[in-house]
Amino acid sequence: MKKNPAAVFRPIGRVEDGVIRVHRDWAPGLDGIEGFSHLIVIYWLDQSHEPELKLHPKGDRRIPALGFLATRTPHRANPIGMTVVRLLKRRGSRLWIEGLDAWPGTPVLDIKPYTRKDSIKKFRIPAWVKLLDQAETDPLRRYAS
Ligand SMILES: C[S@@+](CC[C@H](N)C(=O)[O-])C[C@H]1O[C@@H](n2cnc3c(N)ncnc32)[C@H](O)[C@@H]1O
Fold first, then answer.
1. Rounded to an integer, what distance in angstroms lies between the CA atom of residue 73 and that of residue 45?
2. 1 alpha carbon to ligand 1 midpoint, in Å?
3. How many CA atoms lie within 13 A of 103 on its CB side?
4. Residues 15-138, CATH architecture
5. pLDDT digit string, tens, across residues 69-121
6. Which of 45, 58, 69 to mutate to test the pocket of ligand 1 (most atoms within 8 A of CB)?
């Protein structure tokens, strides 16, 4: 079988408003996904710019400048975004989802079912993340929750 040694991405679909529309050719690859309540969506942050090596997370100057790899900035060497979303329903090539922080038009690279293996109960985060979380209204998007 053909291997995939080079990092060449083939978007499998696009983000629409509250929906991921998978290209028709790949849609049969969604069969069985309805059994999962949550999915991991991996996408290409196509509107991002070259990263600054160090930045204040969310532009908040109360937080010292940190390396971009220590943050969730969309501006990255390889602007890959990753979000755990709730799957509401599937109709053919379309997935209705909740919690995706990618703009309409964003190319979707991959979708994976969320399983127990992806869940870590005990983890450490620095104080600046808790500070930013206080402004986050979506509980799914809070790092500390
Ligand atoms: C901070 S990034 C993080 C994305 C993902 N949750 C992660 O951690 O990989 C999410 C933000 O990037 C911005 N964004 C969304 N879609 C984008 C796109 N296609 N290109 C560039 N920026 C985008 C929005 O401001 C959104 O709130």
1. 10
2. 35
3. 6
4. Beta Barrel (2.40)
5. 999 999 999 999 999 999 999 999 999 999 999 999 999 999 999 999 999 99
6. 45
